[in-house]
Write a structure and sequence with these properties.
325 residues, alpha/beta
């Protein structure tokens, strides 16, 4: 198999929503950080429906710097959609994602590149000295990081840090939707990627206000359920629905046996016992779960076959000690 040919070595993707006050300083910091890399680079700025004149300012910066590629979304879709748009447009072998509010430090990009070239497929930033308010930002982040790490088994200190570098082949193979940008490390791990982490700088917000608060924790819990379901049961949904169905039917049979024994030994009425109704209910619920599992299996097969999607990814094929074309 031929290795993919990339137009540039590094793509930096910036989702931007009403950050006009930060753009001038961000441009200066990015230019300084990238100038010393001696790599072919591009900076992709995704305007996520800004209403403060950010798009006009981005066009102005683009006219002065050939590295910039500007993407304007029709409306505000959210950070995940903006990141997805930037990743789709990116042409680099490595893709850096970072925030545009000056809290992430572009000076960390060279260190991320050095680390990912050690053989990692994703290197995540760790904001060890985070400069945010505790109750509104750091506490929700601590809770979310703990939940995600325990459930997904991705051992990172700061999963929520946007500043990360990816090998293009991994992140481009992931569909980023909803609020799934938080779970990119888990999705890369599920795809077989090797993950690393380094400490990065973090600065207090200078301009504007944060778009996130403590309400994010509830969203994280719901999205986490989705990620785990898709990761472990997305290709075989019958395992979870069928398993739940069989469990319900086993409970139904055991309840029925108990009722019969109760009738024989104690002479209790079957009709008067609420357990008979419970047994019937578990039987019906079990049948429903099994039917849902079978329908989900049909949907998955139609999806894979109609889209031409394979249930595997080949990294390399070697024959006689040499990689095949």
């Amino acid at each position: 198999m031929n290795d993919p040919v990339y137009a540039v070595k590094l793509s930096v993707v910036l989702p931007i929503y009403n950050e006009i006050a930060s753009l001038g300083e961000l441009d200066r910091q990015l230019t300084e950080a990238i100038a010393g890399l001696r790599l072919s680079c591009e900076v992709i700025c995704v305007d996520d429906g800004s209403s403060d004149g950010s798009w006009a300012r981005l066009q102005e910066l683009s006219s002065k710097n050939h590295m910039y590629r500007m993407v304007k979304l029709r409306r505000n879709y959210g950070q995940s959609a903006a990141l997805a748009a930037g990743v789709d447009v990116a042409r680099g072998e490595f893709i850096v994602l970072m925030d545009a509010d000056l809290q992430n430090d572009p000076a960390d990009i060279p260190r991320l590149i050095d680390e990912v070239q050690k053989g990692y497929d994703l290197v995540s930033g760790w904001r060890k000295s985070r400069q945010d308010f505790f109750w509104s930002r750091r506490l929700p982040s601590i809770i979310a990081n703990s939940l995600i790490a325990k459930v997904t088994d991705v051992d990172l200190h700061d999963i929520g840090c946007t500043l990360k570098i990816y090998r293009s082949e991994y992140i481009k193979d992931i569909t980023i939707y909803g609020e799934m940008h938080r779970f990119l490390p888990a999705l890369v791990r599920q795809a077989g990627g090797r993950i690393g982490e380094i400490e990065v700088n973090h600065h207090a917000r200078k301009y504007g206000k944060s778009k996130y608060g403590i309400e994010r924790t509830a969203k994280v819990v719901l999205d986490l359920m989705t990620v785990q379901f898709l990761g472990f049961f997305g290709s075989k949904p019958i395992y979870i629905f069928g398993g739940a169905g069989l469990a319900c039917m086993i409970v139904s049979v055991l309840t029925l046996i108990y009722i019969v024994i109760d009738k024989i030994l104690l002479g209790k009425s079957l009709i008067e016992s609420p357990l008979l109704l419970l047994s019937v209910m578990f039987t019906l619920v079990g049948i429903q779960f099994l039917v849902i599992g079978l329908l989900a299996e049909l949907i998955v097969r139609v999806w894979h076959e109609s889209q031409g999607k394979l249930p595997y990814k080949i990294t390399k094929i070697v024959s006689s000690g040499r990689a095949e074309a």
